[in-house]
């Protein structure tokens, strides 16, 4: 496959970068959505569903977690959400004959796209070792065999993974099931995503989630964007930003890459489609270095401190909100001292931005009476991910931008219910979960030890300590770091059970015993003993919504997710609790009653509240300046990682790799090969590089290169045959797609404290295809890499 690179421009000696002419949204988005629906043969089925998507009485979109407004547009969807609907409602099926004619190992060469593109799974399957095929199995038989196997394992060697799709009801039941089995091992896609948020925000403001609600955007006077690609990853949010932009609100973006989806927007449901006009989104765009945000934020803080002092000397109104700082916060003086002492040269070097740039930002910020701070993976997926979020909070505190209308912090979450799953207790840290309440309500003794998160699970898999892995949705093998090393180790797991809608690589590479259990999607009608059921989800702004599926189920053999959890639990831990699994499955409102009993402050009256148009806001103490931190204050953070963690790129061919998403994927679900915004078509096997770096290495556009990851632990990490794409990205940074580049990320390369894999700052070396960086260190064979444990990680998990 060849790559088409349109429209890049090499300047004479300086690089101009590629023109970003495309507005997000627009006709192209509609065309592409229509193309997906036609290919999925689900045009009418999906079109019908669109009228119910993100609407009261309808279903909550199965893609991202952006909030659903009280007064939706006629069709409240976006390209990403529309594709996700079409993909779930596809008429394509994986028939049983498919597995009769394909050995499972024969599917190992299939791409992520090819596997999912086969269509929906329709029947429970068990891998047969003798024939290397997935064979149909009766549900009862599957549950009883899985139950027997799980009972024979040490509970601490069982992993209960969940991806952020599943509803509050399913997640609540699932974590109870795992704890009754005796394990707190609940790695979650959230561990790879906003875990840095979940660690940083409780320390800073006493809640693990954002404080901004949709109405705040109508009142904001300034909006910051750090490392979140709205046009691609949460396109419905663009409607909100478009309104803000039209009101003249400055939208200040920090991103190493000029993302067209953050530059202009043409609303597909507006007259702009006829007139061909579009609205600018970012008013200022700063191409910070990868990992340079801490430097940038510290620079803005330093400029504000200087402005405040100057204003004080002149007898003018202060720039900082001293009233807020005095009454509400702790740690200001120490932080201010460190920021004042910081050297501007160091700030410029680390951020890649100039003092003037940052002073301009500080000036705009100082004029705003209410500012919102949005951020995404560009802040969290870094070695200093937690510190990045803490420093953003510092910037917010300096002008008291929390606990008032139009202001606050807004982590833009990924999967549709990822935030809610954590709220109902899907967490490996026992201190986050009301274990005593479980013991009281359900008559079992929950384990009190700390379970494993995603990174710890990777480590345990690599060292043969995981004996059973239940994957409730998701694609762990592809999504996790060090994917090439995980695969061979994954095959040694005694039992893998995957609950899924579509086939993916985590099913093809599998354990010694393997089951594939197909489930209903959220858009499908879920009929139980008491009639059709609804579920609930919590969005990125802490709003709880009902979701009702109306579409005809894909197959009569599918079970709902709550039903699958209940049957697994009944088969594995019969009589070990007083939980009425069957009663809950018959009527999901009973699960919600149980959630409300467990978390009365957040979920009281859940059965009623979830039907509120636009969703019901969970209480957020930080929104009213009620700080649930140990010292009951909002806490400034004094930077430490900033001074400790930085290493210059040493080698000529050394780069900081950013792994990212296109508009034609939802995580490891690859819809196609058109990254429309970045104008990269036909392949995802690319490396986006600054043209000066391309020149420096003697390469040319579309040359083929190999990328080598950190081998300091003796592991061989390589992705071969990437095609070079000249791109508007800072020198010494480059970008490639996730999950194709995950083999380059060492499992131990993660954020301090949160262990979010640091997928946005991966040190690599780039060589022309075939050249090896260090012949002695790189084995010539393609045998599975050996990943020894690093000394500092040893003993941390057990
Ligand atoms: N269409 C689509 N939508 C999705 C998803 C999808 O795969 N496809 N995934 C969903 C999920 S699970 C999630 S978590 C969200 C993710 O949504 P985002 O948070 O937007 O995640 P990414 O696209 O991985 O990266 C975001 C941006 O971070 C920038 N970035 C990289 N490094 C840095 C840095 O050091 N500093 C700064 N300031 N920026 C940096 C990248 O250039 C990129 O534009 O989207 C959700 N929505
Ligand atoms: N290098 C790098 N790695 C990353 C990231 C990155 O930016 N860079 N991002 C990380 C992030 S933010 C995340 S969230 C993770 C995502 O990691 P995961 O959540 O594990 O992966 P997904 O690709 O979202 O999972 C897709 C699969 O979910 C199943 N599925 C879809 N719908 C349903 C459903 O309704 N029910 C069930 N049971 N299954 C369903 C399908 O079988 C599909 O194949 O990846 C992380 N990995
Ligand atoms: Mo995510």
Report what the structure shows.
The protein is of the alpha/beta class and 798 residues long. The protein has four domains: 8-88, no CATH class; 96-193 and 423-616, Rossmann fold, CATH 3.40.50; 208-411, Dimethylsulfoxide Reductase, domain 2, CATH 3.40.228; 650-794, Barwin-like endoglucanases. The protein is built from 32 helices and 34 strands. The strands form ten sheets. Strands 6-5-18-17-16-7 form a six-stranded mixed sheet. Helix 1 (26-39) packs parallel to helix 3, helix 7 (168-181) packs across helix 28 (588-598) and helix 8 (195-205) packs parallel to helix 19. The longest helix is centred in the middle third of the chain and has 21 residues, at 293-313. The radius of gyration is 25 Å and the shape is globular. The site of molybdenum atom has 4 residues, from loops.
Judging from the principal axes of the Cα atoms, what is the shape?
globular
Q: pLDDT below 50 for ≥5 consecutive residues: which ranges?
A: 1-20, 775-798
List the domain count as a whole number: 4
Major sheet description: 6 strands, mixed
CATH topology tier name of the largest domain: Rossmann fold
Cα separation of the termini: 45 Å
Q: What's the CATH first level of the largest domain?
A: Alpha Beta
Q: Largest sheet, order of strands side by side?
A: 6-5-18-17-16-7
Q: Helical content, roughly?
A: 25-40%
Strand content: 15-25%
Count of runs of 4 or more consecutive helical residues: 32
Mean pLDDT: 91
Topology, number of strands: 34
What is the radius of gyration computed over CA atoms, rounded to a whole number of angstroms?
25 Å
